[in-house]
Design brief:
single chain, alpha+beta, 5-stranded mixed β-barrel, 4-stranded mixed sheet, about 30% strand
């Protein structure tokens, strides 16, 4: 998979901004999504004590302007509309098979419509930067020197009895959104033949929520798209635009 930001640069750009986690975001339209939600997120199952969670804001250094749709599409092997069926876990190696300083959430997506690149399978495996991971799991494949430095820092701060299995990191790209199970998005991704994963990139520009229909009925969804009934969210402004017009503008 083609690198879109440097490993060393990312390591330097990881800034720990606070410890603990805030109040969980309220679930919206919960009843509307019950029929299409296949499972709870892995985070719900972890039952983390907030005092054992360290939040990390990551400033990624992309080699191109991810806010530019043309540039984003140029670097994507696939652009598609899909429904998030699961968020199964978080790993530092799942997407590329190599260690990533920013762990990646992974799960399954049902593909509703391919816009760029052919996707034959109805359900695909995805990986996306950001997530929650135990310190033990994070350091499992980390460079030896990095893990050693962290161990020394903990000892220096008097944390000799630090439990790596019960302590967690939450890392998120600055400005990015959290995708939700059961929701439909326009995704920009790069396919990795070695791992079989679609790596969703571009942060808030590469994952844009679509509203107007649930996506349960694929044919009905496509009809709604053709009738210009579906809206695409701009994550920077919070406003919606025509999904049909967006596709015609950039992919016709």
């Amino acid at each position: 998979m083609k690198k879109i930001y440097g490993l060393a640069a990312l390591m330097l750009c990881i800034l720990i901004v606070l410890s603990g986690c805030g109040k969980s975001e309220k679930k919206t339209e919960e009843s509307k999504n019950k029929s299409i939600t296949t499972s709870e997120s892995y985070i719900d199952k972890l039952k983390i004590d907030k005092k054992n969670l360290t939040y990390t804001k990551v400033i990624p250094e992309y080699t191109f302007d991810v806010s530019n749709v043309t540039e984003l599409s140029k670097h994507a092997t696939h652009v598609f509309i899909g429904r998030v069926d699961s968020i199964d876990g978080c790993s530092t190696t799942v997407g590329s098979g190599e260690f990533s300083p920013v762990p990646e959430e992974y799960g399954k997506i049902s593909v509703i419509k391919s816009i760029k690149g052919e996707i034959k399978n109805k359900s695909i495996k995805y990986a996306r930067p950001g997530g929650v991971i135990s310190v033990a799991e994070y350091e499992k494949y980390a460079p030896e020197e990095a893990a050693k430095n962290e161990e020394e820092n903990r000892k220096a701060s008097g944390k000799e009895n630090f439990d790596k299995n019960r302590s967690f990191y939450e890392m998120r790209h600055d400005g990015d959104i959290k995708i939700e199970i059961g929701k439909i998005y326009l995704f920009f991704a790069m396919y990795n033949k070695e791992t079989g994963y679609y790596f969703i990139f571009g942060d808030q520009y590469g994952s844009r929520k679509i509203s107007g229909m649930s996506g349960d009925d694929k044919k009905a969804f496509i009809k709604s798209l053709d009738k210009d009934e579906l809206k695409l969210r701009d994550n920077d402004t919070g406003k919606n635009e025509s999904l049909k017009n967006f596709i015609e503008k950039y992919f016709s």
